Amino acid sequence: MSEKRNDVIKQADDMAKELVKFSERINFNEEMFLDIIQESIAPAEEFFSYYACAIMEVETKFKVLNEMFSLKYDGNPIENITSRVKDYDSIIRKVIKKNIPRDLTSIEENIHDIAGVRVICSFVEDIYRLAKCLLQQDDVTLISEKDYIKNPKPSGYRSLHLIISVPIFLENEKKDVKVEVQLRTIAMDFWASLEHKLKYKKNLPEEKKDILSQELIDCANESALLDQRMQKVRNIILNGE
Predict the structure, then answer these.
(1) Nearest to residue 128, comparing CAs of 71, 68, 183?
(2) What would the pLDDT profile of 172-195 be if each residue is shown by its tens digit?
(3) What is the per-residue pLDDT across 84-115, written as a single tens digit (0 to 9) for each?
(4) First and final C-alpha spacing in the chain
(5) Does the annotation mark 30 as catalytic?
(6) What sign for the dihedral angle of Cα 118, 122, 124, 130?
(7) What number of H helices and E strands is found in the chain?
(8) Cα angle value 190/192/194 (rounded, 5°)
């Protein structure tokens, strides 16, 4: 909980710094400046806290499923769960790119990955089993699904992406909040992490970029074959063959 709160506070601090610079440029008096800070920061802090709360709800759902699966199948399907609330700068860049109106309501309606949860599984079958169980819960609403495991991106990227809506319970109301859930195997996550780092290397000639892109595609295909082989090994063990 403290980590999520720290993320929210950091978002508010970033906005405060920008307001300080602005106030210095136009010579606001102190009282006027404090009024603007209060009017601008409070709604933003509340806005980000909704997403932090939604992440906790989704993480709890997966932790419960992981525990139940461990009892039923004698093994935990989840290797790791990570999460994040998209930072202020990333949201602003997306607002500009998608030409979204500059208000919190429009941002909430049009940007669906402000809250993100990534679930790393041992095997591909675990991904679909967990996703099915999650979506069967009566307080989870599926907004969209993109299966990059069955239909990999041209780059070789593989993962199951779900945009869901979950309720969070506030002091006097219930609020539905969107969360992006990514489910992938250890091999998929290993590839995606390295691809992300390599993709943003600067000062590479185009010819070398093309070679590296093809090499990454080949690595992704080999990783997918490894997932298939490990799944077969697991099935043999479970079936006692």
Answers:
(1) 183
(2) 889 999 999 999 999 999 999 888
(3) 999 888 888 898 889 988 888 888 999 999 99
(4) 45
(5) no
(6) negative
(7) 7, 5
(8) 70
Q: What would the pLDDT profile of 148-169 be if each residue is shown by its tens digit? A: 999 999 999 999 999 999 999 9
Contacts of the segment 210-218: beta carbons below 8 A, 24+ positions apart? 213/155, 216/155, 216/156, 216/191, 217/154, 217/155, 217/156
Rounded Cα distance, 131 and 69, in Å? 13
Helix pair 30-73, 124-136: axis angle to 10 deg? 110
- When computed from its CA atoms, the radius of gyration of the chain, rounded to whole angstroms, is 21
Q: State the pairing for strand pair 174-185/115-121.
A: parallel
Quote the CA–CA distance of 116 and 118 in Å, as a whole number.
7
Three-state DSSP class for 149?
A: coil
Catalytic residue (choose from 180, 206, 207, 222): 180
Left if phi > 0, otherwise alpha if psi is -120 to 50, otherwise beta: which for 233?
alpha
> Among 189, 235, 229, 194, which Cα is nearest to 215's?
194
Domain residue ranges of the chain, discontinuous segments joined by +? 2-239
| Fold classified for 2-239 | Beta Polymerase; domain 2 (3.30.460)
The C-alpha angle 140, 142, 145, rounded to 5 degrees, equals 140
Rounded to two decimals, the pTM is: 0.80
- Name the token pair of 171: 């002091």
